[in-house]
Amino acid sequence: MSKAFSSEVDAGSRKENASKQKSEYDVAVVGGGLLGSAIAWGLGRLGKRVAVLDEGDITKRASRANFALVWVQSKGLGMPAYTVWTVQASQAWGRLASELKQQTGLDVSLQQNGGFHLTLGEDEFGQRAELVKRMHNQVGAADYKMEMLSASEVKKSLPLIGPEVSGGSYCPLDGHVNSLRTFRAFHTGFIAFGIDYFPERPVSAISKSGGEFRLTTPKGELGAAKIVLAAGNANQTLAPMVGLYAPMGPTRGQIVVTERTMPFLPHPLTTIRQTDEGTVMIGDSKEDELDDRALKHSISAVMTDRAQRMFPHLSRLNVVRSWAGIRVMPQDGFPIYDQSETHPGAFVACCHSGVTLASNHAFEIARMVAQGALEPELVGAFSASRFGGAGAANNSGY
Amino acid sequence: MFRRSEQDKRPNVQIFVDGVAVAARQGDTVSAALLASGRDVRRSTAVSGAPRLPYCMMGVCFDCLVTIDGVGNRQGCLVPVADGMQVEIQKGKREIGK
Amino acid sequence: MTVAPKREAYDVVVIGAGPAGLAAAATSAEAGLSTLLLDENIGPGGQVFRAIASTPVTERNQLGADYWAGADLVQALRASSAEVIHRATVWSLDRNLEIAVSIGGASAFVKAQRVILATGALERPFPIPGWTLPGVMTAGAAQTVLKSSALVPDGRTVIAGQGPLLWLLAAQILRLGGRIDRILDTTERGNYFAALPHAFGFLTSPYFAKGLSMMREVKAKVQVVSGVTELSACGEGQLASVSYVAGGKRETIPADLLLLHQGVVPNVNLAMAAGVEHRWDELQLCWSPVLDANGASSVAGIAIAGDGAGIGGANAAVVRGRIAARAAVEALAPAAAATLTSMAALRADLARAERGRVFLDTLFRPAQQFRIPTGDTIVCRCEEVTAKDVLDSVAIGATGPNQLKAYRRTGMGPCQGRLCGLTVTELMAQARGKTPQEIGYYRLRAPVKPITLAELAAVPKSEADVKAVVRG
């Protein structure tokens, strides 16, 4: 175990304090959520000395509040490069899952047998068909076989749908995974790779001197040759410290979870999925609200009402909990991957689809960070320069 | 495990447990009636299939889950018995539509 | 028959019909405030006065005078104008004092000017090896079936643990002719010395004489083993024997029923989900709400009375219920407060009722090995997570119960941490070298009890709600 922090550490902690050492780490990743963990894991896999700085038990973690979809359909309207990036991630996920299984023994229950977005009534069907058409018509669109299906066609795959279902869009590349187990697998993998994980150390300041970055936390400073800002919505505040720009526009989403039931849903939907545990997750809302403690039951009512109209037999199932999460959401919805010109060696990475893109983060982003440069052909479209100059942070509460 | 005290003069109520008639008393909760019946009323969990019986009898442990009149995962310790009630012992995960 | 609340808004809503709730609702109603009392059970009484209005155990000396005192509380409530709904499960309470309650499979919403939470306590978890085996139950469970259905143990029965309730239960079982083969007392010997400084309060309290006579009554008929330091339940699919260590010696006895008890702790779920601030109480080893002298919590308008405010027993619960109700009356209808017992008199009553409490808390402080399990012993019953699983999660960096929940699903089951939360907090505190206060607790949210999808779907929705969800 490395000893990195240059000031006093809390008593009783297992990690002992030690004297200052220059650039003990090749890379410090700020943020231990799914995105930061995937990148850190990928770097450890390449033999780099990595430290991960994370917040504590109570914090707004999208990694604990997501819908666990590995999703391709409808991604990239307005940015075809995102579609390409997403398809690549979906194709690489199998390799990630099997490497995690081999390393940690944990099976993340990846299932990629196609997914649906169901519609209720003819109006919704029409709207969805429009979206599918617009995506097909995009210049540079990758063909990932997203198509509209009628209700009777849907029924062949999902026999339990109710009479109000008018059909929906389907994509054979869509899937889902046990995202919490994936999160656990990454952190378990840290031990094997010798990655140091430091919780309860939110970063408040970053400076660069003598060729290394110094990160300030409540429990002391840490030094690293390179840093990756992977702190979700908080990237907006951290990025300018190293000459980067990461405008975010978070929203709140609510989810309802039921007790376990026998398997009935062989494919995930955008709004309903049955986990490998047997529980059913139902979502989701988009609210301009940043308090993840408060819940609006009327919104849960809309979600559950739609769910039981899609699958009538769900109505008697018990809801055992509901929660809200704050989405990590870049301002235009597309990922931000950037490297600093004023502070070479500083990278920023944030996106909404931390689950879907986990494979790309672990394999591609990690590789590029290790090599010292992001590749324009791969991720150039995601630079924050697309926002037109590093302006002041927008007023999103971060 | 339990027997009824002779003091109990409450009228009988007939319920059915997995189709078999069982004598209960008016005012019993379903779980109390099951425990008093002398039958093997162990359920098995949805996670591992481990056998369980009620633990707290006050609605906080959820080990008393039982199907009542076709509706699954009811807390038996909170539901009073009624004549003709159909009780089914649950094995594993809840079934579709039940 | 489904009963719905008669109004949409009340002056005072009381949740829980145990001693605190009964007293609070009666007091509030007597002062002329519109009052609604909601309770999950079939009849009034909570746990301590369970089945007071319906028990088949009618011979008064069997359950004892302390139990029958509850009948007066129920009578006072029924004589008042309070609206009472039983089999009503409150599943949500928020900062705006909006209450969602499930009655007969349908949810109703009521608004209150003041809410008095009287949801009481539950048994402290007792995570010994084998505690999930069929045949292992709490002492409270045995007391519940005794009071409400006149059921008594008739097989090979062992009672294990500590605290006044254990002796009360044993006495009641014996009076009804039930069978107890052995009592295993886990009271730590060192606690006797620690409790000595508080002995005077105890000796001059009502507990002392009653407690002593009950213990004598039980010890005359049942073998009692003191100083039990290890305990486990054994069997394949069903309890078959109980193994224990006392005085350095291990013994195993066959058993069909093991009744566990090591005190009760506040049932915090509804209060925490409503945002009420709690703090770790190092003497009572549990989370207690932060309250002022009137029972007012950190959420404006929500007061807590009874054992949910901190374990104090039935008599203290009654007085706290009256204090919280009186405070509501003072705020909403000050002129009517003059007709009630004065606050000064109530505070004197409370002091009297709380005499001896510190002694009991000190003497019956459960031993660490019975609060913090090891190895394969199950911590989370719902999700079947062991102590080792919890420690493995700490080893990969989980700093508290919420990250643990993400890794291992502890607290995700229907009980929402009621049976694992305290164990998790203490186990993680020990593993990380921190205090339970620093470790924290699960972040709880509504629904605090399960409701069906259909019921949730029927909650009124606005167009804005629909727009927030249906986004193409």
UniProtKB/TrEMBL annotation, chain B:
One of its GO terms (molecular function) is oxidoreductase activity. Keywords: Oxidoreductase. It comes from the Bacteria. The keyword Oxidoreductase applies. The keyword Oxidoreductase applies. InterPro entries: 2Fe-2S-bd_N (IPR042204), 2Fe-2S_ferredoxin-like_sf (IPR036010). This is (2Fe-2S)-binding protein.
